[in-house]
């Protein structure tokens, strides 16, 4: 799948979005306004595959409110796996129900 | 008036005076089987419990220092508590909520009073009776003026009188936004001007927080400044400047734009009803920062100042 160019080249953060062999969507890097389109495309691809729909956040170091919205507002719930403390904190403030979070 | 929302300010001198002035408000509620919530200082709680005796056991007590830790978190907690009670409880809800102003900056007090103003709109449908005590000694004249602007009623002795200077919340908040009263940043502040990238501002804020803020608080500020930049980009034609500085134990970050100004004075004050609703970023920011100051005027841009310690 696509990833944005390194930030030293363009006005973008770095984000890698990849659907792995187990059908888990992996986000690595920073999800912000400059990489939002990659998150959106990844979620579309994930939804095209059969459930369960899981998104691994263990390599995601930053997420903004809009990208969080993409993860939380999807019509059928996505399971969010291993968010880092800063991401988990914002999820909790938003009241994202804990059954959506999975820690392994 | 019995089934309408009532929001009154109460001035008192000391804990004994507080207890005498609030005992009947609380006692009548308990006797009638109503839900009663009291959030105040430890000394006031003790004095009021002494007067109430066994009736005090039916009251939900809260410590002001927990509830009023951050203005945004405070309001969300009251909103959740009152709307939950309104749903589950048949009778009236009585609330005493005291913002303890001791040890707070003038900017924090101003922000707390904005929420007081906002509560008139938010709690209107719950038909709750809300009483906000203010200790006379820690309520200087300029604060008292704002108290009377944000409370439609004033409880004086047993009487409830109308506040002649009450201002409707939309006007009160818009007036506050238009006030150009933010202190000038210190001369050593770091100023960033365009072209700038959100990712670099995040790095800069992270570096400035390192060593004196916890990782969690640094991340809270990084998230918040990024939201302010997103808003400036989406609604304000892009940020025209970002200023960051450290003052004692506090890291402050200001984002400015020259856009059309906020679309509504309540922007970012109310919990978004759905996660996709606009204003979610600014609302989250108010939950995460110690204090968020917004100044905005139609056609004259928006300034968002974020404080974290």
Question: What does this 3D model show about the protein?
Answer:
The complex is a heterodimer of chains A (104) and B (309). Chain A has 104 residues and is of the alpha/beta class. Chain A has three helices and five strands. In chain A, strands 1-2-3-4-5 form a five-stranded mixed sheet, covered by helices on one side. In chain A, helix 1 (36-48) runs parallel beside helix 2 (65-72). Mean pLDDT of chain A is 87; it is low at 5-10. In chain B, the strands form two sheets. Chain B has a seven-stranded mixed sheet with strand order 3-2-4-5-1-6-7, sandwiched between helices. The N and C termini of chain B lie far apart (44 Å). The model of chain B has no long low-confidence stretch (mean pLDDT 93). Chain B is elongated and about 65 Å long. In chain B, a hairpin with a 2-residue loop joins strand 9 and strand 10 (250-257). Chain B has helices at residues 15-31, 42-52, 64-67, 71-88, 106-122, 141-150, 169-178, 198-209, 215-235, 280-288, and strands at residues 6-12, 35-40, 60-63, 93-97, 129-135, 153-156, 159-162, 190-192, 239-247, 250-257, 291-296, 302-308. Chain B is built from ten helices and twelve strands. Chain B has 309 residues and is an alpha/beta fold. The A-B interface holds A 7, 11-13, 30, 32-34, 62, 64-66, 68-69, 72-73, 85-86, 89-90, 93-94 and B 195, 197-199, 202, 215-216, 219-220, 222-223, 226-227, 230, 233, 274-276, 280-281, 284, 287-288.
């Amino acid at each position: 799948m696509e990833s944005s160019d390194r930030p030293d080249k363009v006005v973008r953060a770095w984000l890698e979005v990849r659907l792995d062999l187990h059908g888990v969507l992996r986000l690595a890097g920073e999800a912000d306004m400059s990489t939002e389109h990659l998150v959106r495309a990844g979620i579309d691809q994930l939804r095209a595959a059969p459930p369960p729909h899981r998104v691994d956040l263990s390599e995601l170091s930053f997420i903004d409110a809009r990208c969080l919205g993409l993860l939380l507002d999807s019509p059928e719930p996505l399971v969010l796996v291993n968010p880092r403390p800063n991401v988990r904190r914002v999820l909790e403030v938003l009241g994202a129900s804990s059954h959506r979070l999975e820690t392994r | 008036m019995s089934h309408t929302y009532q929001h009154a300010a109460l001035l008192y001198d000391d804990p004994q005076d507080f207890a005498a002035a609030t005992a009947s408000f609380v006692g009548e509620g308990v006797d009638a089987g109503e839900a009663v919530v009291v959030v105040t200082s430890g000394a006031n709680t003790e004095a009021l419990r002494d007067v109430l005796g066994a009736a005090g056991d039916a009251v939900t007590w809260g410590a002001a220092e927990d509830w009023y830790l951050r203005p945004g978190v405070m309001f969300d907690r009251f909103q959740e508590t009152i709307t939950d009670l309104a749903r589950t409880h048949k009778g009236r809800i009585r609330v005493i909520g005291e913002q303890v102003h001791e040890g707070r900056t003038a900017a924090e007090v101003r922000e707390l009073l904005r929420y007081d103003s906002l509560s008139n709109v938010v709690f209107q449908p719950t038909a709750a009776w809300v009483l906000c005590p203010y200790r006379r000694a820690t309520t200087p004249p300029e604060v008292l003026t704002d108290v009377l602007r944000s409370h439609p009623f004033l409880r004086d002795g047993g009487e409830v009188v109308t506040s002649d200077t009450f201002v409707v919340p939309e006007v009160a908040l818009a007036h506050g936004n238009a006030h150009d009263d933010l202190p000038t940043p210190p001369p050593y502040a770091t100023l960033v001007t365009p072209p700038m990238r959100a990712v670099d501002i995040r790095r800069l804020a992270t570096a400035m927080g390192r060593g004196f803020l916890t990782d969690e608080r640094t991340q809270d500020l990084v998230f918040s400044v990024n939201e302010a930049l997103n808003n400036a980009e989406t609604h304000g034609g892009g940020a025209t400047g970002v200023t960051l500085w450290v003052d004692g134990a506090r890291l402050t970050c200001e984002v400015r734009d020259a856009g059309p100004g906020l679309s509504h004075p309540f922007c970012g004050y109310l919990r978004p009803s759905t996660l996709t609703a606009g204003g979610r970023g600014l609302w989250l920011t108010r939950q995460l920062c110690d204090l968020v100051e917004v100044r905005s005027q139609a056609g004259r841009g928006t300034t968002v100042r974020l404080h974290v310690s």
